[in-house]
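Continuing the series of single-chain predictions for the mutant panel. This is the parent chain; the variants come on the following pages.
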Amino acid sequence: MKKRNSLDPKGILILKILILYTKATVARELNYKKQKEEYEKIFEFSDLKESPEHYLWILKKCRLKSPDSARILDVACGSGLFLHLAENFFSETFGLDIAESAIKKARRIASRTLFICGCGEYLPFPDESFDLVTNLGSLEHFLSPEKGVREIARVLKKNGRAYILVPNSYFLPIIINVWLKGDKGLKSNQPLERLATKTEWQQLLEKNGLKVERIFAYNYKTEKDPWLYRLLRPFIPFNLAYCFLYECQKKI
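Parent structure:
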């Protein structure tokens, strides 16, 4: 008798992804066509990413709680810089983004990562597929952040970790800009933008399947920082930080 060809665990996962991807694509095309078009343009002619130092700061947090053998998914991975760096630390890396133009860029710099073009609110992965799930500066742009969080919780393993980075509506420079310029002080280069406080984001996460274990404050650093921000940055209180990184586990 001929032996049946057997698939390794990664091969089985990829097969399941192909099946679920078809279902997720139908839902995505019905509801997210315009948003997808906007992001295709953004990544075709420009980019959306933070500095390598920013991503290494997050990876340092991830590695404290996740082994090198962890399977990691970056939801809304953009052009793949985070996963390019993550490949140095984790054995299996996956990335998903709504824009094919972003995925094309990502594949060039993160060759070991499996990339899929898809929507964060309809993840084409089986339940409890990943040890580590990240969503870095993207949840606030989702049409339904609640669905996005529920999907992260669904694909996260019981003892896994999720790291979610979101902006703070009480960020001190935002307050100053609005005070000085009114509505013109609020600028965004993306189709949809949401801001919330530390507590509001935590409530959103915990109402949709995640349990927040720790919260880290982050204040960006660039050479082009306005002089006032550069002066105030070391003294910015926790609740007035630029953004928050939430370390979460799946609610059981």
